[in-house]
Write a structure and sequence with these properties.
Order of helices and strands: HHHHH
Shape: flat
Number of strands: 0
Number of domains: 2
Number of helices: 5
Largest sheet: none
Helix content: over 70%
Distance between the termini: 46 Å
Structural class: mainly alpha
Radius of gyration: 27 Å
Strand content: under 5%
Length: 155
């Protein structure tokens, strides 16, 4: 691996490559900044919710089994139904200041997002399988061409 200074010294003799490196460096720095910003925002959101919100977020991030995810959803639903059934008044805010209706809306949004991800995963699997078949066909073509070139060279 080349040190940064050596790489920059070599690249300065090639202006087009130097421009591309500067653009790539700027893009990388921007990407890192956006990722760090997103992580900090996400952490703020997680810390602002109550324990069940945090459990749901953690289960969706880690890709826990469907049984574990359902358990978290059931806990959230039980807490919501208990809060709704505690009287004729509107549902009181939960520990993070988040109303039950807001939590239900978030759960619905997450379920929609999960379904979307599952559909995307199925699509990626289909594309992957098609690509695998194409690779097999290409390998067969290459093998056939190699045999033809070898046969021609032997003549």
């Amino acid at each position: 691996m080349l040190p940064r200074e050596t790489l920059l010294h070599v690249v300065e003799h090639f202006p087009a490559a130097a421009i591309k490196m500067r653009k790539a460096g700027a893009f990388l720095a921007l990407r890192r900044h956006v990722i760090e910003l997103a992580k900090s925002k996400r952490q703020e959101q997680v810390l602002s919710g109550d324990m069940l919100d945090q459990m749901y977020d953690a289960s969706s991030k880690r890709g826990l089994s469907s049984t574990q995810g359902q358990a978290v959803q059931m806990s959230l639903a039980l807490e919501n139904s208990a809060a709704e059934g505690s009287g004729g008044s509107p549902a009181p805010p939960r520990a993070g200041g988040v109303a039950v209706a807001e939590a239900e809306r978030k759960v619905e949004e997450m379920q929609v997002a999960i379904r979307s991800l599952q559909e995307q995963q199925a699509e990626v699997l289909q594309v992957s399988m098609a690509t695998k078949e194409q690779m097999k066909a290409l390998q067969a073509s290459v093998a056939e061409l190699t045999r033809a070139v070898t046969a021609k060279q032997q003549l």
